[in-house]
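Dear support,

Our group has been running a series of protein-ligand predictions, and this particular one with fe (iii) ion is the one our PI (initials K.S.) wants archived with full inputs and outputs. We had some confusion internally about which version of the output was final, so please treat the block below as the authoritative record. The input we submitted was:
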Amino acid sequence: MRLAAVFSTVGSVTKTSARPRRKDILITGCAELLTFRGAAPRRGRALGDLGIIRDGALLIRDGRIAAVGPRRRVERLLESRRARKLDLGGRIVLPGFVDSHTHLIHAASRAAEYEQRISGATYEEIASSGGGILNSARKLRNATPAELKRRALAHLAQFAAHGTTTLEAKSGYGLTWESERKILLVLRELEREQPLDIVRTFLGAHVVPHEYRHRAGKTPDAYVELICREWLPRVAAENLAEFCDVFCDRGAFTVAQSRKILTAARACGLGLRLHAEQLARTGAAKLAVEMHAASADHLEKVFAGDIRALAHSDVTCTMLPGCCFHLGLAQYGPARKLIGAGAIVGLATDFNPGTSPTLSMPAILSLACTQMRMTPAEAISAATINAAYSLGRHDRIGSLEVGKFADLAAFDVDDYREIPYYFGVNHCSLTMKRGQIICARERSSRV
Ligand code: NIG
Ligand code: FE
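Confirmed final output from the archive:
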């Protein structure tokens, strides 16, 4: 596999608009081409609509899809005859995954806490004794931007190797202005220097930092004030992030504090996201609806009334089954109920060192299918077009349609359902970002 080499050489040439015209590319050999064409977002039965084309082909011009359809039809186009040919030899092709919830920038794993949990300690017990997010914050504050960047680049190469072409990435392990800014600046540099698109989210309200818990005059409410009055205006002024997220949960921020932060964020022009109803039912889901947030994520502990409210809103309900799996919890998000009620359901890794140390979207599909009973078609749709919607990018990415970016992933399987079916194995063998191959591996031997 030449993954790292490919990843680093194409990085700098992908995102400039003034590049010389590249030759068109004709992609054939797509045994199944999952287009997800049609209206977005997907709700209810439409979530399982793949827009599948057997023996499909794509014509790519300047990084965008110029034609898509059955091979015989696309091949006949005049432009196709002149194009460079790329025969995928019968692979399954889908839009690149859109991972709409990650904590990409962190300084170290928390494998020791993993072992403590296996021995019986809960996530919240570890957090309240100074571990958890505060543990990651201590390490991040001491890390240099160069160290953080090196680590993130290695992870980004792995995201690409598993078929992800766009990801959202949050700050939240800094919890001081300097460290939160450090994370967002590293993300901005990474966005320019490697091929994946990165959508930045400010998560200063991840937890109340140590300094605002134990010192006179420095209360959690004072930290909330600091975020609202000083940090959010600076985030906006320096264009450091597009979204603001809040961990609204037991042991983190209350609904009232979260409302205050989200209101200030909206006034600064930021889009809104929420970590909601993960550890306890607090009313965070209803707050997401009230604030017209783009996404409410986790939702394992929602009540029936929350599901109804979410279903009648445009909030994407982002399921994060990697957390339940890694924490060994039995209660996964109510994906079936949300889909049945007509909510917009998305899927993401929540890649982070505390609750979900995976960057594999295929692994998340396996968990979504087996543990939440989503069909393979629903899961892939949630991880592509609906996730793109939650990031406000469904006009550009998330489906394979004319005019959209040629962001795609090809898998060495015979049937798209085998992507979640073969759990724990990465069958993605080619990833393309804006018409450029950013990751290519020898084809695995078919089973
Ligand atoms: O999404 N819940 C809050 N944030 C992360 C966990 C972060 C951590 O434990 O480091 C999550 O699960
Ligand atoms: Fe998270």
